[in-house]
Amino acid sequence: MAIRSEAYKTWRLSGPIIFGELTQIALGLIDNAMVGAISYNHLAASSLVISVMNIPFVLGIGLTMSVSQTVSMAHGRRDAQKVSHYLFNGFWICTIAAIVIAIGLQLGKNILFHLGQDAAVATLAVPYLQVMGWSTVPMLMFMAVKQFTDGLELTRTAMVLSLLALPLNIFINWLLVYGNWGFPRMELIGAGFGTLITRIVILIALVVIVLLHPLFKRYIAVRKNQWKLNRNTVNELLHIGIPSSLQAGMESGAFAISGIIIGTLGAVQQAAHHIALSCAAFTFMVSMGLAQGGSIRISNAWGRSNWKEITLIGKSTLLSGVCYGILCAVFFVCMRNLLPLAFNTDTTVVALTSTLMLYAAVFQISDATQAIGVGLCRGIKDVRTPTLYVALAYWVLGIPIGCLMAFTFKLGAAGMWIGFVSGLTFSSLLLNKRFFSIIKRNSTGHL
Q: What secondary structure, in 3-state letters, does 203-237 show?
């Protein structure tokens, strides 16, 4: 019963986080659909920019996770002053990181002409990259404040704002992409400004809510004493944030490299891989949200040194992840011949994708439990060794085994999936074993 109760609490906390993650995917799909209606060159340019921005953006998102972890720990100790202090320091760390990322994207915009892309596509992509680069600043600032509210286990506010961003983004795109109501027809750049404006609006809305809503009054009331940058606090946040960024960056980088490697096998293999990976990425949003929810709850219990509760949360979250991964695996197996048709109708691509979906099915369990293992360890501030495990999983095992199976054993794209399943299974086992070993030692010490 205790396991079931803890699982319910974690799912209840994670639900709004998951919906928020899914809305971010939906925003990207909306932009693609609206600019794709203009021409395939505009769609290709949008895809190129998102690919280039993905790794630095994910690195920034990883950095924001330190805010929710430290806030949750302080909240567990009922230390409102420390909660406020972490909010202020975390917010400015994320803001500075966002500005650095944005400037880096501006300075490196011409790299788009050196990636072997069509010249017309690269020309369209450059101004879009510039606008989207600046949009990372309000987005990461929003994420920093969102992580503060998540750390307090008040996850619905950011979820509602993320959902409201969808119609707002569609409306602004309708005005600027197509030039309706007398606005200039800006096409792809209009979609960039739509994203930028939407992110600024939801940032302002969330900041106003945090500053004025009674729920947050006790944390804002102490700002005169606590809203000061502190070197030790910054180091504490970076101790969690940098490894979290590296973990996310290594994962995104590995999948990006796998796409390039599979692309050398031909367009059919690349298309089939892209479809299977898109399906897996969508279901992974739930695993990631569950991992974040479990991590936040464990940080709260860790702040109170309640190792019995940490054990229950860890077991229930891992069990939830296993059950979810199995459900996704069964769904992928049963729907492997139908899901590809939503992306492409070419019989060769659909047939290969159907095969890859079987590997993606097994991948669901490994991916879910690996993400949860990372989250559980982060909840007890154990981040350095897990980062090493993630590096080994993707770059020492996953990609080399994938290349071996793909090229030496002539398995093609399926070989890369075998590599990732092998690496993630290895990482999942090590991460979860490490977490439960740590809590066992501490639980014994507190008897």
A: HHHHHHHHHHCHHHHHHHCCHHHHCCCCHHHHHHH
Q: Which are the contacts of 373, defined by CB distance < 8 A and separation ≥ 6?
A: 318, 386, 427, 428, 430, 431, 432, 434, 435
- The pLDDT tens digits of the residues spanning 373-406 come to 999 999 999 999 999 999 999 999 999 999 999 9
Q: Is the Cβ–Cβ distance between 79 and 109 less than 8 Å?
A: no
Closest of 21, 20, 44, 19 to residue 32, by C-alpha: 44
Distance CA 424, CA 393 (A): 6
User: What region, left, alpha or beta, does residue 311 occupy, with left being phi > 0 and alpha being psi -120 to 50 degrees?
Assistant: alpha
Nearest to 22, CA basis, from 245, 201, 289, 249: 289
Structure tokens belonging to residue 211 = 């500053």
Contact status, residue 311 vs residue 432, Cβ threshold 8 Å: no
Please state, in angstroms and rounded to a whole number, the distance separating the CA atoms of residues 173 and 169.
6
User: Which distant-in-sequence residues (6+ apart) come within 8 Å of 359 by Cβ?
Assistant: 276, 414, 417, 418, 421
Indicate the pTM of the whole model: 0.90
Among 389, 325, 303, residue whose Cα is nearest residue 313: 303
- Residue whose C-alpha is closest to residue 37's, from 178, 226, 131: 178
C-alpha to C-alpha distance for 118 and 112, rounded to whole angstroms: 10
346 in Cβ contact with 274 (< 8 Å)? no
Sequence spans of domains, the chain? 16-229, 239-447
User: Of 323, 287, 311, 320, which Cα lies nearest the Cα of 424?
Assistant: 287
Give tens-digit pLDDT for 224-267: 999 999 999 999 999 999 999 999 889 888 888 887 788 788 87
Tokens coding 436: 């439960």
Neighbours of 343 (CB within 10 A): 17
